[in-house]
């Protein structure tokens, strides 16, 4: 047909080629209510990890190293040790293995496969990624005792013993709190971390947070961006992005204040702020109606267990013929 009518066929407009959206992963399948198992928070583990092994690894590592090793330098800085800025928020001392054991909440375990696929795609896309989630405090117990404000506290751990975290959120010098990024490779940065301040989080409502990392071999093109609802802060970066666990961006998640947390959306792409605004506006109305769950998954699991009292075998009764 093209040979017989070249003019008509060549005038046909090409079909519009849609841009394919990147894959999206979630660590949970629903909103989680995470209580504070200790005064400093709780620890959620990957579905491939379990409490017994994590605690035993902690004890073995502490027995062999004492805890103060170079590969834990970033975590010690986050805690405010070794000249680091004082952490005015809460943070678990994961080198105290008893405290770590008390903090672990197996009810908030997350999907390791989703994190693995996300991390693989991040590597394939040159290191770019975006994480986004909603968080809401659980009343007065979630507020800072002195400032009477809610400061979300999260720590994403690649390994716990030694403690190594690529991303943290807490209250250090910036008055609203800040995200900090760490890297396992030669950073070339001024400090052991790079940070971006968040806007203020709500004391009694949902707050939307999104963090984006644009990675590049050229430092001038690297960027961190943080969205808080419809507000945005960003900074350039000198730090190359390398993960301690090349297959899992995180294997444990520390939650420092009792909170409701939505599934964490993981996108292996740097999303522009306009797209993040769309996500916020598309969900803010629905999130305003969500006030639960009212109990944590751990409490639900405990309540669903049925106690069965064992009845001893009675041989005499077993040999008695039933009445006719």
What does this protein structure show overall?
With 324 residues, this protein is of the alpha+beta class. The chain is 23% helix and 20% strand. The protein has helices at residues 6-10, 51-65, 73-79, 97-103, 112-124, 273-288, 297-303, 315-318, and strands at residues 25-26, 32-34, 42-45, 129-137, 154-157, 167-170, 178-181, 194-197, 207-214, 223-228, 231-236, 252-255, 259-261, 265-267. The strands form 2 sheets. Strands 1, 2, 4, 9, 10, 11, 13 and 14 form an 8-stranded antiparallel β-sheet that branches. A 6-stranded antiparallel β-sheet has the order 3-12-5-6-7-8, covered by helices on one side. A hairpin with an 8-residue loop joins strand 9 (207-214) and strand 10 (223-228). Helix 2 (51-65) packs antiparallel against helix 4 (97-103). The chain is globular, with a radius of gyration of 25 Å.
Q: How many β-strands, per DSSP?
A: 14
The helix tally amounts to: 8
How much is the radius of gyration in Å? 25 Å
Helix content: 10-25%
* Low-pLDDT segments, ≥5 res: none
Structural class: alpha+beta
Biggest sheet details: 8 strands, antiparallel
Q: How would you classify the quaternary structure?
A: single chain
Cα distance spanning the termini:
92 Å
Strand content: 15-25%
Q: Provide mean pLDDT, rounded.
A: 89
The backbone outline, from C-alpha atoms, is globular
**Which series of helices and strands comes N to C?**
HEEEHHHHEEEEEEEEEEEHHH
């Amino acid at each position: 047909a093209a040979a017989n009518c070249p003019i008509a066929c060549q005038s046909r407009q090409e079909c519009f080629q849609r841009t394919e959206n990147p894959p999206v992963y979630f660590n949970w399948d629903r909103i989680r209510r995470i209580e504070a198992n200790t005064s400093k928070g709780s620890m959620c583990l990957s579905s491939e990890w379990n409490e017994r092994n994590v605690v035993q690894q902690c004890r073995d590592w502490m027995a062999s190293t004492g805890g103060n090793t170079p590969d834990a330098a970033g975590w010690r800085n986050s805690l405010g040790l070794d000249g680091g800025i004082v952490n005015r928020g809460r943070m678990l001392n994961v080198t105290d293995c008893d405290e770590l054991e008390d903090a672990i909440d197996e009810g908030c375990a997350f999907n390791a496969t989703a994190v693995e696929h996300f991390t693989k795609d991040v590597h394939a896309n040159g290191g770019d990624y975006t994480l986004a989630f909603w968080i809401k405090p659980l009343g007065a117990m979630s507020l800072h005792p002195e400032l009477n404000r809610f400061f979300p506290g999260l720590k994403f751990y690649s390994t716990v013993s030694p403690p190594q975290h690529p991303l943290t959120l807490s209250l250090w010098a910036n008055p609203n709190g800040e995200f900090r990024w760490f890297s396992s490779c030669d950073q070339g940065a001024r400090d052991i971390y790079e940070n971006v301040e968040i806007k203020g989080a709500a004391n009694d409502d949902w707050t939307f947070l999104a963090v984006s990392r644009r990675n590049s071999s050229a430092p001038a093109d690297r960027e961190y961006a943080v969205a808080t609802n419809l507000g945005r802060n960003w900074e350039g970066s000198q730090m190359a992005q390398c993960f301690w666990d090349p297959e899992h961006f995180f294997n444990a998640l520390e939650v420092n204040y009792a909170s409701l947390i939505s599934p964490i959306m993981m996108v292996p792409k740097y999303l522009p702020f306009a797209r993040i605004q769309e996500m916020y506006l598309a969900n803010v109305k629905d999130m305003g109606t969500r006030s639960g769950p009212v109990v944590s998954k751990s409490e639900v699991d405990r309540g669903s267990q049925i106690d069965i009292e064992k009845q001893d075998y009675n041989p005499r009764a077993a040999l008695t013929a039933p009445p006719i």
